[in-house]
Automatic annotation (TrEMBL):
<protein>
    <submittedName>
        <fullName>Nucleoside diphosphate kinase regulator</fullName>
    </submittedName>
</protein>
<dbReference type="InterPro" id="IPR023459">
    <property type="entry name" value="Tscrpt_elong_fac_GreA/B_fam"/>
</dbReference>
<feature type="domain" description="Regulator of nucleoside diphosphate kinase N-terminal">
    <location>
        <begin position="8"/>
        <end position="47"/>
    </location>
</feature>
<dbReference type="Pfam" id="PF01272">
    <property type="entry name" value="GreA_GreB"/>
</dbReference>
<dbReference type="GO" id="GO:0016301">
    <property type="term" value="F:kinase activity"/>
</dbReference>
<dbReference type="InterPro" id="IPR001437">
    <property type="entry name" value="Tscrpt_elong_fac_GreA/B_C"/>
</dbReference>
<keyword id="KW-0418">Kinase</keyword>
<keyword id="KW-0808">Transferase</keyword>
<dbReference type="InterPro" id="IPR036953">
    <property type="entry name" value="GreA/GreB_C_sf"/>
</dbReference>
<dbReference type="InterPro" id="IPR029462">
    <property type="entry name" value="Rnk_N"/>
</dbReference>
<dbReference type="Pfam" id="PF14760">
    <property type="entry name" value="Rnk_N"/>
</dbReference>
<feature type="domain" description="Transcription elongation factor GreA/GreB C-terminal">
    <location>
        <begin position="54"/>
        <end position="129"/>
    </location>
</feature>
Length: 137
């Protein structure tokens, strides 16, 4: 899954970063390719407190509308942790190649990624919707 192309900058919340880092450790032996790709994404990510993140950023739990630039197909999915996916059509696990490619991108950004079969694809983020972040007063 390692990509030779330049990837766009990404930002993660400190909470997502920590949880994804723990997830990587848990799957290193069972899913080494996904673990390696997610680890690369974490290594290159800017990390910020959740309340400082832009609204149109793909975070865990966000509803994301994206286009497969190779086929033109538009998909609407919620990016979730594997225990929340449960085979639901509208949910996309972070442990899938496309799920890992989505994390940390903003509306309008595109990224090249590889399918499990090694085919190179490109996707573009069309819309991101997520619950507003509330800070304690």
């Amino acid at each position: 899954m390692t990509q030779s192309v330049q990837r766009p900058p990404i930002t993660l919340s400190s909470t997502d970063f920590e949880r994804l880092d723990n997830l990587i450790a848990a799957i290193e032996r069972s899913q080494p390719d996904v673990a390696a790709y997610l680890s690369e994404e974490l290594d290159r990510a800017k990390v910020a407190p959740k309340e400082d993140l832009p609204e149109k950023l793909v975070v865990m739990g966000a509803d994301v509308t994206f286009r497969d630039d190779m086929t033109g197909d538009v998909h609407h999915k919620q990016l979730v942790y594997p225990d929340q996916a449960h085979g639901e059509d509208d949910r996309l696990s972070i442990l899938t190649p496309v799920g890992a490619a989505l994390i940390g991108l903003s509306e309008g950004q595109s990224i090249d990624w590889h399918t499990r079969s090694g085919e190179e694809r490109r996707l573009t983020i069309l819309k991101v919707a997520r619950l507003p972040v509330h800070t304690a007063s």
